[in-house]
């Protein structure tokens, strides 16, 4: 059993975003048999929350700390109102798509590059079908096609940048993009000429040519080998799924075992233990000091993990000042996968709490030993693994820091 905090000692945890701005403060306190956690939201975050949410739609995550000082001068804002509804819908789709899915394009660049082709083809199909509908129905189709075309632009441009950075190995990123544009021009010209020659002979309404186009696009993406996976990047590139749910946990080729979210806030984990006070936001009378017990389990780890049974999701809050976030992400992901595979971490409260604690402890140690052993192996680096950058965190995550405060009285 974990040791309870004495009456003359408090524990405080600080949560801040990736840049270092204060988000919230969590203060744990005990009084006899009661256990309480107070949540103090940063005044700056609390007072400007609505304004910040609006501004974050148009700025990168962590602005201004995540960009250079010359970002604003070279990024003029488009404040002119569009007079055409179709163009307005396209702009709104661009902003919404980049805001909601911008951070997940880098880890899933293959999926979004393939999705860009589907968005573009769907927009062209809607434009071709719009004349057969009544006049009142055409405007919604035009607006939808404009939105799809805008989504295609965001997904294609962002994913292409990631793919180009992967292909360029000798500092030739600019040349690679220039030659890629030339290749696209030639291919488009050849496609137009071929289409002009084949058009008189194609009268069937089957989707054969559509499927061929999608298969070529899908095959080109799968053939892109990423030097990030074991046992062999070429083998994994043939097995990976282009369209996959974010954070899904699978064991080899099995069905989805659950989900994992990296970089969640402490509030997301505290909500699993009980409801907070609507007015104060505090968590009081938590059952059996469960949250403190969870902190004790992961006191030597770079994260804390808890299973949200209602959402079938393993929530991972990451600690600050970790030497390598790549190792932290891998350890948390492997532990979540082991818990999901062997049905651990999802027991109900009560008599099984002891076995649940052991499951968390054993899988945490297993993940630590496995990741430490693999990363320290010389053969691991020879396979082309990138140990400097992690692409597993697809949300603007937060970090937290725990500090002990001694009572002066």
TrEMBL record:
Per the database record, which ranges form the Protein root UVB sensitive/RUS domain?
Answer: 75-211
Q: Which InterPro entries match?
A: RUS_fam, UVB_sens_RUS_dom
Where in the cell?
Membrane
Please indicate if the UniProt record lists Transmembrane as a keyword: yes
Q: What is this protein called?
A: Protein root UVB sensitive/RUS domain-containing protein
Keyword Electron transport assigned to the entry: answer is no
| Major location category of this protein | membrane
Which species is the source of this protein?
Answer: Erysiphe pulchra
* GO cellular component labels: membrane
């Amino acid at each position: 059993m974990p040791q309870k905090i004495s009456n003359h000692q408090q524990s405080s945890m600080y949560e801040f975003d990736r840049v270092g701005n204060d988000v919230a403060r969590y203060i744990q306190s005990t009084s006899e048999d009661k256990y309480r956690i107070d949540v103090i939201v940063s005044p700056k975050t609390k007072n400007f929350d609505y304004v910040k949410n609006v501004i974050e739609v148009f700025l990168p995550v962590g602005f201004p700390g995540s960009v250079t000082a010359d970002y604003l001068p070279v990024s003029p804002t488009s404040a002119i109102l569009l007079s055409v509804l179709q163009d307005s819908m396209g702009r709104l789709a661009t902003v919404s798509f980049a805001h909601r899915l911008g951070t997940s394009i880098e880890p899933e660049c293959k999926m979004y590059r393939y999705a860009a082709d589907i968005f573009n083809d769907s927009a062209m199909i809607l434009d071709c079908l719009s004349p057969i509908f009544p006049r009142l129905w055409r405007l919604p189709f035009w607006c939808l096609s404009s939105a799809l075309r805008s989504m295609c632009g965001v997904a294609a441009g962002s994913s292409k940048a990631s793919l180009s950075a992967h292909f360029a190995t000798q500092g030739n990123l600019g040349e690679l993009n220039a030659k890629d544009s030339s290749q696209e021009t030639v291919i488009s010209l050849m496609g137009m000429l071929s289409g002009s020659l084949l058009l008189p002979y194609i009268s069937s309404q089957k989707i054969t040519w559509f499927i061929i186009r999608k298969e070529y696009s899908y095959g080109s993406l799968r053939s892109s080998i990423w030097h990030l996976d074991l046992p062999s990047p070429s083998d994994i590139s043939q097995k990976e799924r282009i369209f996959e749910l974010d954070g899904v946990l699978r064991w080899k080729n099995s069905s989805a075992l659950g989900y994992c979210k990296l970089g969640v806030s402490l509030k997301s984990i505290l909500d699993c233990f009980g409801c907070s006070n609507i007015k104060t936001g505090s968590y009081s009378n938590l059952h059996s000091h469960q949250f403190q017990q969870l902190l004790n389990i992961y006191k030597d780890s770079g994260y804390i993990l808890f299973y949200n049974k209602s959402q079938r999701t393993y929530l991972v809050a990451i600690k600050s000042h970790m030497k390598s976030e790549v190792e932290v992400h891998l350890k948390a992901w492997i532990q979540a996968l082991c818990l999901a595979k062997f049905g651990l971490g999802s027991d109900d409260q009560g008599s099984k709490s002891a076995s649940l604690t052991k499951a968390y402890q054993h899988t945490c140690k297993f993940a630590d030993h496995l990741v430490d052993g693999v990363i320290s192996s010389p053969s691991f680096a020879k396979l082309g693994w990138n140990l400097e950058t992690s692409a597993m965190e697809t949300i603007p995550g937060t970090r937290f820091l725990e500090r002990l405060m001694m009572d002066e009285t």
